[in-house]
# Entry
Amino acid sequence: MKAICFYFQIHQPFRLKRYRFFDIGNDHYYYDDFANDDILTRIAQHSYMPACETLLHLLETYPHFRCAFSISGVALEQLQQYVPEFIDLMKKLIATGRVEILAETYAHSLSSLSDVEEFISQVKVHDEMIYSVFGVKPKVLRNTELIYFDDLAPVILDMGYKGVITEGAKHILGWKSPNYVYSAASAPKLKILLRNAKLSDDISRNFGNTEWDEYPLTADKYIDWIASTPAEEQIINLFMNLETFGGFQTHETGIFQFLEAIPYFAKERGIEFYTPTEAVTKLKPVGELSILHPISWADEARDTSAWLGNTLQNEAFNKLYSVSERVRLCDDRRLKQDWYYLQGADHLFYMSTKHFADGAAHSNFSPYETPFQAFTNYMNVLADFIVRVEEQYPLSIENEELNALLTTIRNQEREIETLNKEVSSMRKNIEHYNEEHLLREKKAEEAKAEAKPKKAAAKKCATKKAAKKAE
Amino acid sequence: MKALMFGWEFPPHILGGLGTASYGLTKGMWECGDMDISFVIPRPWGDEERSFANIIGASQVPIVWRDVNRDYVQERIGNVMSPDLYFDLRNHIYADFNYMHTNDLGCIEFSGRYPDNLLEEINNYSICAGVIARTLDFDIIHSHDWLTYPAGIHAKNVTGKPLVIHVHATDFDRSRGKVNPTVFGIEKDGMTHADHIITVSNLTRQTVIEKYGIDPAKVTTVHNAVTPLSEELLNVEVTKPKEKIVTFLGRITMQKGPEYFVEAAAKVLKNDHNVRFVMAGSGDMMDKMIRLAAQRGIADRFHFPGFQKGKQVYEMLKASDVYIMPSVSEPFGISPLEAMQMGVPSIISKQSGCAEILNNVIKTDYWDIDAMADAIHSIISYPAIYKQLREDGLDEVNRITWDKAGAKVIDIYKRVINNR
# Structure
């Protein structure tokens, strides 16, 4: 038996406005609200809304249909702000009980590559947000842009996830097939789902390409391809951007009709649908997979060179994460918010110089004319951000020292409390002591007082005697 | 194939970009093989490189028959022209020019520069071209820039050979739109008579089509290139000042947009004091610029070292951290390519022809002083972008070679000859 595992990605960054260097230190608002609103609303209208409506229809029609979404925190924030009706639609999808939401980094960041602590905290923040909005707890993680490598597996397992999603990169798999569940070599309990790059790209990239030799692609033919994979292959992971439907492949290409027809033909050929959680619980891993160097689903190289491929990108990336510890130490809410927005991998993606050579995806998505403009703008914003971080805590203090000071500050309440207790107990002691002391004094006085009357009596007696004598 | 080229400047005695481009292109075509080029210039000095082209000086072309003996000719002009050619040319004098002012060899004197009586020199050059065209054997005529268009037309009329003209600049670029009617007339005449027109950028091509009303099918763009620099120039030694240096190199005229550079400098200096600005060159707007810098209160950080030539140019570039060319209208603009060869990151205006072929530079609109200031600040404050532009720029500019441009020109020659 075979199953298809659909997962759709939703992400939109907070695009930066044109930020000149003379704004550094003067202007602390970095975002192009107009562009963000405009782009998100347009994409939601053309793609997100109709695609989710189609999926809802499929879920209602076919009881065996299932799919998963991952929505980055920054995208969810924008959707709440600009297209709240989409959130309602998503709630309806989740209410069917057959739609899963995946965990990921809140900021769509590359934190997993340089700062594991930040990575963990972002995934937690994202989980909390998903729970507060949709009331579900993610069980499978997909890292930003499907980035994955061995060192990450124990971390993900520790956070309590059953599985992780990544790219079925050819240079990793070699002769192996992506159509199985694998386990992580560095943490065998963690299961890995691999994207079937060929079949996923046939939908997301080739579908409307009239020069493609398989054009036109029908759902019948497509399911035939899946059905004709070797019988023992268990799961076909089709992971793609939700924008595929109505965005990359426009409405006119017939992509929505294609999507609608898929479950029908799948049912005809006895192909099931699994959510990622079902896939990792129902299916047994066929082997371990070791991935030493980070892989992703971007570009031809399927590595991290789309974001960290040149000097500009590395400089921006290192500058950004040089302050991560500081930012975590402080608790200014606006600063934390900007910290998330600036971490978006998209900002680095715009700085890629690869598109000089092949005119590929990079320049299509970039709001900038050139990577140099992207770099300059981002660095100016970052310079202002770092100034603000420094205003919180002066740079002259080392991180460790600062940490120690902050712990002192945070602990001082508890310390004061204990000291207070001590003081009060001391006071009690003192009072107690005083009381005792008083009592003792009283006793002593009483004793004296008793002694005095005797003397007085004695004196009296003496005086009496003397008086008698005088008489 | 044999080509007869008319030009005005030739290295090492150059006044602008025209000479450098003519030299590079000729050499590039020669490198493609099977090209025999005669290059006519008004006045050779004898120290031109002659290995790849036969250089003929119009100032050595007789237009009046003088009875001189071979030894005398050898002694007078032997360093720039062989006596054989002199006598051959003398046999092809085609009219009585005795009314003209000529020297003891029957030749006209040329300054070879851009004197006040430029129009007269252009006319005289065309007279000499008539003699040369009647003497030499060639398949095609190629005229560089408007000064030599009349000569090209003359040669074409005399021999019936096809004429290709090379537009390095138009008067619309030089005057920001207020064209000189005489110059416009000469340019338009040349373009009308030409069998094909080569422009140095799409920007210029558009000007030729729109402003001169030329059939687009007749106009092709061949972008300029650069000649690799010698080891000596690449390794010139300069002591770098401790501040960052931003350099403008070129004629200080309206066309080059110097005022935008001063304004951008004022913006940068408001926030960042560890930088100096240099405007090297001379021109009719220099005094105005000095005054503008003083008005903005940045005269202590803004320097005018004057016209730089030869090795000084490269010393200047070597000491620079940023090169800027804010030209309002630049047909091509070879200087940023030279800066890139020296490893200096460049900022150029989008209104420059070279912006069409360069990727590893920062492009801004010439009027956008905010963007320009931002770009300057970015390069001097973020080492990563400096490094990226420097290294990738060097790599990019080393791939822009004249033999590729030369091959394109030869293709055009073949097309023109076959179409006749």
